[in-house]
Structures are given as C-alpha cells and as structure tokens.
C-alpha cells in the first residue's frame, strides 16, 4: 500500500516537471521581457537631466570640482542630521523627562512611544524657534541672497547654537573636555572649541534631565509606599501594590494638571525663568 502511494506521488511530480520543462519558450519570453523592462528603466535613470555626482579631475575649472566634492560631503553629513537634532537641541532633556514621568506613573506603554517622541519634537521646535530665527536672519537668508559666502554663513549659523549650548552647559563639564582634549585655557567663550562644547552640553543635559526626573518621581513613590504599607497591614500580600496605586497616581496627576506643570517646567528650564 505504501509503495503504491509513493508511486503515485512520484508520477505526479514527474508530470509537473515535464510540464515545466515543456515550456522553454514561455520561460525565455519572460526572461526577455524582464531584461527589456530593466533596460528601459536604467536608460531612463541614466538620461535624467540635472542630476550628476561625477567629479572630473581633468576639469579646467577647479571650482566645479570643489562644488562636486562639497555636494558629496553635504549628502554624507545629512545622515548625521537626526543625531544632531537629538543631541544639539532640547530634545534630549524633554524625552528623558517624559519617559521617566511615564515610568513613575506606572504605565510603561501609555502614552505610546510615538506620542512621547512627537510631543518632544513639538516642544523642541517651540524652544529652538528663536535660535532658528536668528540663524535664518544672520546666515541662511544672506547666503541665499549671495551676500556672504559659505564659510561665513557656517560661522554665523554656529553662533546662536553655541549661545544656546553655553546657557545650558555647566562650566565643570566644559572644563572636563578641555582638559581631556589638552586644549589651552580659554579667555573668552569664543576660544572654547565646539568639539569640547558639544559633549559638555550633552552630559549637562543628561544631568538636568535626571534631576528633573528624580523630583517628578518623589510624589508617585510616596503613593506606592503608602499603598504598600496599607496592603501589608491588611494582610493582602498577594495583591500587587502597583495595581492598587496606579489609579491613585493617575488621579493625582490629573488633579494637579500634571501635563501643564511638566511642559511649563521644561520650557522654563531652557529660558532661565524657572
């Protein structure tokens, strides 16, 4: 019986194989069709006007070679734009504080990550708006109007960003990276290189964010301790304290208008009015 079943299976497989091998023209037609489609697409891409990333070393005009190299470098630096947006702006402090707030309440997935990151980005754009406005007036618009060259535009664009960093960075952190980089002692703020200012700003932001997160954590921790003590005194040791304290923490956060206080404190921490 088993041999008969195997024979039937082998017969079906051999028939299907014969059908596939019996259609060489169909397979050849499909292969030719795919090659033609790829050829048309590639020819269209090659003929696209206005886009060229080639650098001709034999060009009689060195400016053309320099512009091509600058374009390649600029496209490479665009991949670092998300990191710069995260680390050189107020985004780091905001997203850490909001994440710690979510953990303190006891809802690790509410609000979702998309909401936390979206709110952090919106607040970052709001806080950094004066910095961008100054960059636009002093660097971007004059460069687009051909009033200044590229080097001058980059220097003027760094000035408002450096001023923002200096306001949020501790002198201790700046001195740390000056010593690690064997840099000479600066006389003015302009003497501090951006290479030392950037990491100092990052660790200062991390310290400030964790300090704010600690202050936010305290009232919710008190609620957890009170609920745990009550459940322990009642002998309800099998009931998770976090499950009972969650409604009270949410109620406390809503009653004190927590989102208003958190956002207000975050914004004022950058303006220096807090």
Specify the structural class: mainly alpha
Number of helices: 11
Largest sheet: none
Give the amount of beta strand, in percent: under 5%
What would you report as the Rg, rounded to the nearest angstrom? Answer: 32 Å
Poorly predicted residue ranges = 15-26, 28-32, 35-51
Helix content: over 70%
Number of strands: 0
- Label the overall shape: elongated
Order of helices and strands: HHHHHHHHHHH
Ends apart, CA distance between termini: 87 Å
Mean pLDDT: 74
Q: How would you characterize this protein structure?
A:
By secondary structure, the chain is mainly α. 77% of the residues lie in helices and 0% in strands. It contains eleven helices and no strands. Helix 5 runs parallel beside helix 9 and helix 7 packs parallel to helix 9.
Short descriptors:
274 residues; 77% helix; mainly alpha; single chain; elongated
Question: Could you give a quick summary of the protein structure above?
Answer:
The protein is an all-alpha fold and 274 residues long.
Topology summary:
Elements: H1 2-21, H2 24-46, H3 62-77, H4 81-87, H5 91-105, H6 113-144, H7 150-168, H8 171-180, H9 194-233, H10 241-255, H11 258-271
Helix pairs in contact: 5-6, 5-9, 6-7, 7-9, 8-9, 9-10
């Amino acid at each position: 019986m088993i041999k008969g079943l195997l024979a039937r299976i082998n017969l079906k497989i051999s028939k299907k194989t014969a059908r596939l091998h019996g259609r060489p023209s169909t397979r050849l037609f499909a292969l030719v069709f795919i090659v033609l489609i790829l050829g048309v697409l590639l020819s269209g891409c090659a003929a696209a006007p206005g886009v060229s990333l080639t650098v001709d070393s034999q060009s009689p005009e060195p400016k053309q070679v320099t512009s091509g190299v600058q374009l390649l470098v600029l496209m490479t630096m665009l991949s670092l734009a998300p990191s710069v947006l995260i680390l050189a702006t107020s985004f780091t402090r905001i997203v850490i504080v909001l994440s710690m707030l979510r953990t303190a309440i006891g809802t690790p997935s509410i609000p979702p990550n998309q909401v936390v990151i979206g709110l952090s980005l919106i607040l970052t754009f709001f806080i950094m708006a004066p910095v961008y406005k100054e960059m636009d007036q002093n660097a971007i618009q004059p460069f687009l109007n051909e009033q200044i060259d590229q080097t001058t535009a980059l220097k003027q664009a760094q000035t408002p960003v450096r001023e923002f960093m200096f306001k949020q960075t501790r002198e201790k952190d700046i001195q740390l990276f000056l010593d690690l980089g064997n840099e000479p002692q600066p006389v003015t703020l302009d003497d501090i290189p951006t290479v030392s200012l950037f990491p100092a700003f990052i660790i200062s932001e991390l310290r400030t964010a964790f300090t704010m997160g600690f202050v936010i954590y305290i009232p919710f921790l008190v609620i957890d301790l009170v609920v745990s003590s009550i459940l322990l005194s009642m002998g309800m040791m099998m009931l998770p304290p976090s499950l009972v304290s969650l409604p009270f923490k949410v109620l406390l956060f809503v009653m004190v208008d927590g989102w208003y206080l958190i956002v207000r404190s975050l914004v004022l921490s950058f303006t220096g009015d807090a």
